[in-house]
Specification:
Blueprint lengths: L4 H23 L5 H7 L5 H15 L7 H8 L3 H29 L5 H30 L3 H20 L5 H16 L14 H16 L2 H31 L4 H6 L2 H28 L13 H20 L5 H23 L11
Length: 360
């Protein structure tokens, strides 16, 4: 919290950039699905869809190093490609999972909405950028280059992170300070205010079980399930775009990738709106309920978000089925992007992200 504005900005830019790469990797091969199936002599569109969407199952696990290389060097069958895409999702979940916590470490609660909005743009815009890159790259250089380009970009960001990213976790920082003071003063009884004296093993078990206990809460479970459904619709759209626009509207592979920009535009619009409106809504509800700010005061924007998603899905599905002008279904996807961001941005804001003592 005491870092300079320049240092905080540097950390936020790096974290946001890493978070942008991970979702790009999740969809960069979507526009090359037909090419991938042709390469492996398959006509199974379900498996073609799985090649993209299996990444999301990996998102529920994690960190970000070996998966891109594995995809490039040993994927000699469609089954192995699906397996390594799963590992890619596991590795790529780190920045999406930890980014909000990094922001909470550096930015005070009353200023967090703007920083969170800027960070979330990377997370929500990435899935829309991926098919655009892949749509033009795959026909020009081959579908494997959609993975090569991600390996190169991740390699660059890894080097940048090693050089410039600094630790921001309060527990670690205070423990380092305590160790330094014990060495300087010789007083071995000095302890960090956040030290629980637990072993690394017990802390690991605690950290694994706490999210599962939270998930047993009906409100957390239902919100998580709702967000999962909305996110699954989003990726269903990504995998269907090439089939719809390539086959039905005679788009090229690159043009079919551009169709995802409707979702990207909707995502950015909602990021801006959420960033501006979140503080105002929170202040109004805080004043109305006795002046005590609560995280859940940032959840009301989910209500219009819940309306945007079905409106966008109906608009896109009906217009594509009716074979009207291609711009009409793309406009419908703008609402899908808006609805997705309402849920994606508000859920983390409605859950306390500031550090709490491990015993709390």
């Amino acid at each position: 919290m005491n870092w300079s504005s320049g240092n905080k900005t540097t950390q936020l830019i790096i974290v946001t950039s890493i978070t942008l790469l991970s979702p790009i990797g999740s969809t960069i091969n979507a526009a090359a699905t037909l090419n991938i199936l042709k390469q492996f002599n398959s006509t199974n569109q379900t498996v073609g869809t799985l090649v993209t969407n299996i990444f999301l199952l990996g998102y529920t696990f994690r960190p970000l190093v070996i998966a891109p290389l594995s995809e490039l060097y040993v994927s000699d069958s469609l089954a192995s490609l699906v397996a390594y895409r799963f590992l890619a999702g596991a590795m790529g979940s780190c920045p999406v999972t930890l980014g909000t916590g990094s922001i909470a470490d550096m930015v005070a609660t009353e200023k967090r909405a703007g920083a969170m909005g800027a960070y979330i743009i990377g997370a929500v815009l990435g899935p829309a950028i991926g098919p655009v890159i892949g749509g033009y790259l795959a026909p020009a250089a081959g579908w494997r280059w959609t993975f090569w380009i991600m390996a190169i970009a991740c390699g660059v960001m890894t080097l940048v992170s090693i050089l410039f990213v600094r630790e921001s976790y309060p527990y670690v920082l205070l423990e380092r300070s305590a160790q330094r003071l014990r060495k300087e003063t010789g007083n071995l009884r000095l302890r960090s205010a956040l030290d629980t004296e637990k072993t690394p093993r017990s802390l690991f078990v605690f950290s694994i079980t706490r999210p599962l206990k939270l998930l047993l809460s009906p409100i957390v479970f239902l919100l998580s399930l709702y967000a999962a459904i909305v996110y699954s619709y989003l990726y269903l759209c990504f995998t269907a775009f090439e089939i719809v626009f390539y086959g039905q509207y005679s788009f090229s592979s690159g043009e079919a990738g551009l169709a995802t920009l409707g979702i990207g535009i909707g995502s950015v619009l909602r990021c801006v709106i959420c960033g501006v409106a979140a503080n105002a809504v929170s202040k109004i509800l805080t004043a109305k309920h006795g002046g005590d700010p609560k995280p859940e005061y940032r959840l009301p924007p989910m209500i219009p978000g819940g309306l945007c998603t079905p409106i966008g899905l109906f608009w896109y599905g009906w217009s594509a089925q009716a074979r009207v002008h291609w711009i009409v279904p793309i406009v419908g996807t703008v609402f899908i992007g808006m609805g997705m961001v309402f849920n994606y941005v508000r859920l983390p804001s409605g859950i306390p992200t500031t550090f709490q003592h491990p015993d709390d």
